[in-house]
Automatic annotation (TrEMBL):
Belongs to the UPF0065 (bug) family. SUPFAM superfamilies: Periplasmic binding protein-like II. It comes from Comamonas piscis. Pfam families: TctC. CDD domains: PBP2_Bug_TTT. This is Tripartite tricarboxylate transporter substrate binding protein.
Amino acid sequence: MTRAWGECTGRLMGRPVVVQNKAGANGILAINYLKGQPADGSFAMTIGMSQMTITPYVHSQMPYDPLKDFAGVAMIGSSPLVLVVPAGVGVNKLADLEKVAKSQAGGLNFGSPGKGSPAHLLTTALTDAMHWPATHVPFVGESAGLTALMGQQIQAMTLVLNTAAPQVKAGKLVPLAIFAGQRSPVLPDVPTIAEAGGPAVLARPSWIAVVAKKGTPPEVIKALNDATNQCYSDPVYANSMDKMGVTLMRSQPADVLGFAERDIAVWKPLIDKLGLATQ
């Protein structure tokens, strides 16, 4: 998603956009890198709902403040997450997964791309609401968790749609529910979380945005925002995002922190209720 955005905006602005991967600690390493750069308009970051609304609040000492450390640039798009299990284990709906959770010591073993990820919080909230015993198994990134899931080292995982869909269509994973208010055309036979028998409040798709370091010149932010919105009408860009199951979002720079504030109001109380904040 980031590379597609960088190629399109760079072409429209007539300057290269170089993508640097800074993996680790569920985005904290990348955020610290951005915070360490000058706020001169040379650096920006694509950032997920997780890092903007969940990750800082699962630490008793916040590693950063998304509402104070960043300047919003643009929303890129949203994509639902889907709860999946390995194929061939006899689990085809949420009721089947409940039986698994209640039949073994430690409950359901579910994976996530890391503590504080939307997948972690959504699945934890689901097991809590359904009163299932469960054990969270964090991985360093989604790919590592997916490998463990297909190897049946864990029993369930919530994945972003474009990660899950190819494996579902290949018959390697079974989707149980999409955490969204409506079904996805990418996997039209998969029920929403409410249709599957889960809490409707968990119909919260993930989103990705672009931010810059606080203090970045407004004219740079406006140029990036304008280019992002122009990409919305680029058929190649739109098609590539559609294939990834991303719904594009036109926006103004202020919308980024607005979306963050909206979701923080939901996730932070849930984090506090479930006692997920640790050192």
